[in-house]
Each structure stands twice: as C-alpha cells, then as structure tokens.
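User: Can you help me understand a structure? I only have the sequence.
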Amino acid sequence: MNEMKMKMKMKNETQSNCMLCNMKQLVFITANRMLTLPLLLLVFSIPCFPPCVSTTSIGHFHVNQRIRKSDQAVLLPTNNNMNPSEVETLFKIMESMSSDHAWRISFPNPCDSASSWPGIECKPGLNDKLLHVSRLDFGSPPNPSCKSTATFPSLVFTLPYLTSIFFFHCFTQTKTNISFPLLPHISSNSSSSLQQLSLISNPALVGPIPPQISSLHSLRILTLSQNRLSGKLPVQLFLLNSLVHLDLSYNVLTGPIPPQVGSLRNLVGLDLSYNSLNGSIPETIGHLGLLQKFDLSSNFLVGDIPDSIQNLNSLVFMALSSNKLGGKFPQGLEKLQSLQYFIMDDNPMFIPLPEVFGKLMKLEELRVANSGYSGIIPPSFSHLTNLSTLSLQNNRLTGEIPVGFGSLCHIYHLNLSRNMLAGMVPFNSTFLKRLGRNLDLSENPGLCLSPSEAYGVKIGVSLCGSNRTASTIQPFHKSEAAPSVLCKSFFLLCAILGTILLPQFSIFHLVVSVIFPFFTSFD
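Assistant: Let's start by predicting it. Here is the structure, written out as tokens:
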C-alpha cells in the first residue's frame, strides 16, 4: 500500500511539473501578445518530459546514468564477467594502438557478446567463471586500424589467457621494437599460453628479435615477416620446441644460421628468405624430419647444400635462389620423393645439370636459371610428367632439346633461352599453340623450327633452312583477313569517279596508284 501511495505521489508531482511548465510557456507567450487559439492548443499539447535522472537498461545491467551539462560525465556499468585488472590492461592496449573508438565508452564490456568489438575473441577460463581475452587482431579489416603513433604494446604478454596476436601493417611511422615487460610472471622460467605471434608488414618495427622470446614456451606459429628487424638470430629462439611454423622473411637479419635450428623437431615450415644471412647451411637442418617448406632465398649463403638434406622426407617446397651456393650437389637428393618445387636460380654452381632431378617424379616446378650449369639437358627430365614449369635459361647447356619434352602434357612455362642448344625444336604445332608466349627458346643460335610446325608464336628461333625467324610468321585471323570483293570494288569505284570528276586533286591519284594496288595484291 505504501509503495502504491509513493507511485501515485510521484505521478502527481510529474503532472504538477508539467502543468507548471505549460503555464510558464503560456505566461511568456501572453506577455509577448502572441496568444492565438491554435497556439494555445499547441502549448497544452507539448509533452511533459521526465526528470533528468532516468533508469536505463544496458544488456542485463540496470544502471543510473547521470549526465551533467557541465562536463557530460557518464557513469557506465562495471564489468562483472571479466577480471578487472585484465580489462584495464586490455583498455590500455587498445588506447595505445587504435583511435577508431573511445574504447572504454563504446565497448565497456569487451567480452560481452552483445557489445564486443571486432578483432577480439574471448573464452571462459578453466578454473573460474570469468571470460578472458584469447585473441587480438589489429590492422586488417574488419579489425581495428592502428594509429600513426602506435608502438608495440608489451602489455600483450601480460594477458594470461591470450593465445593469438595478429598485428598487420600497424607500426608504419613511429619506430618501435618488440619488447617484453619487466614483470616476474613473464620471466624466462615462466610459461605462456600464447600460441601464435604474427607481426606482418610493419615498416617501423625495427631492432633485434629479443632473447626473451624464449619465454613463450607454448608458441607454435611465429611470423615476423616484412618488417625491419635486424641483428643476428638469437640462439634462444631455437628453444621454442613447440614451433611448427617459423617465418622471419623480408627483414634485414644478419649473421649465420645457428646450428641450434636442428632442435626445432616439430617444424613444418621454415622461411628465412630475403634477409642478409651469411655462412653455410648448417648440417643440422637434416634433423627437421617433418619439414615441408624450406626457403632460404635471397641471402648471402655460401658453400654446398649439406648431404643431410636427404633426410627431409616430407619436404614439398625448397627454395635457395639468389645466394652464393656452389660446388657439388647433395648426395641422396632422389630420396626427396615428396618434393614438388625446387627453386635454385642465381647461384654460381658451374657444374653439369644433375640427372637426379629426373628421378623426382612429383616435381612440378624446377627453376635453376642463371647458375652456370653445363652439359646436355638430361633425357630423364622427360619422365617428369607432373612438371608445369621448367626454367633453365641463361646457363651453358649444349646439345638438343630432349624429344620427350613435347609429351609433357602439364607443362605451361618452358624457358630454355640464352644457352647453346642446337638442332631442330621437337615440338609440334599443338604444343607450340598451348604454350604460346610461355615458351622461350631465344638466343640459342643452333636451334631451328620445322616450317611445317610453325605456328607464328614468338619463340625466338629461325625456321630450318631459312633466315626468317618463327616469330615473323603470323597466320591471318578473321579480323586480319584480306579485304572482301565488295570492299575492293568500293575502292575501285571511288578511284574511277575521282579520276573522272576531280582529276585536279592528287588524293585520287594516290588512291589509284597506291591504295588500290595494295588491295588487289591479295588476289
């Protein structure tokens, strides 16, 4: 009963306020002598607004929001489904990285499904009923963008349940480096839940890879590609025994590859390409029995490919281009029966082209251009029925093109240019037509193409028994065919009328003497 009386009292007070409000408006209008009947009706139709303090529902929270005109202060709901210290750490990271939103106001409940921001994932804890941040993505839409002053937030390593970090094109203007907070629980003896650390395409991310990275014991994917990281590879990096994928490509890392790389026994992908690494490929690389991708392209590596490479039975992709590797080829290369891509252009090998390539039956791409290989192209290469790309250009190869090359039905790119090959090209018109401009045999003075097989594509060789090159023979297509009889008749009529009616104009003499003979030459 008391509650009912209280509600009635509040209602009466609200109505009294409305009446008072309307009466004040009426007095004001009357004082200004503007009172009319329609205006009077309008005044009393103005709704009465409730007091400035209201109860608002946000999700399952019911809070009082008090907005003061002086400073627009906003009282927001407290987060009761996350650890307060974890929430505060998250807000600090967000505010230092992105200015897309006023994060504390726009997304007061980071892990709440109704208000969570893009680029964040949360999971419930195993030992509590709270939600915890498990993934942070920045830079790539629809994830939050990074502001120009963003620097690497070392606080990310203090989020205890974080398993994945992905920063793409975030650090672009303000120089920053990978750093770890000086906190006891992130010491080298501690463990971490982080499994993926991907920092990609950050031109302002500089400095060395810190040795403290060894504290991330659970790390499985480490991608630090397309940054400006420098210095030597820290030995501590190879203590991460759980690593499955290691990509440090497109940086300015220097020094040798430590032999400790062989301790990463779970590694499936290793990419150290496009750096300034020197020294030789360590023999311990043969310990990586699960390795499928091995890329050391564009460095300053010297010496031989170690024989231990034959132990990489799972290897699918191997790229060693643009180094200074030379000397003998590794023993037992034929054991790599899973190998599909072998890319080793631009190395000073200066040895006969190894026949062993013809035993790698799954090979799809073989690129060994510009490396000083000599001798003939082994006929065994014709057995590579899965081959789609063969690049042997700019070597010292002699002899004829193997006849079996014309039977490679999957090949679509063949470059044998700038060698010393000779003899008749063993390709029929069907083969020439299929490859088109993807076939380059130029700068082999001894090669020639049978006139019966010429298709008019640019392969850069002469016709056998002729000084003309095959590239000069272009068959007519429908759009290039000779003019029709009607077209020739039209020009003939124009020429006759012109010479009869307007003989003084030399343009018609031009038609008769030049253009008409040109068209009649197609007869």
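Now, to help you interpret it: The radius of gyration is 39 Å. The chain has a mean pLDDT of 77. Let me know which part you'd like to focus on.
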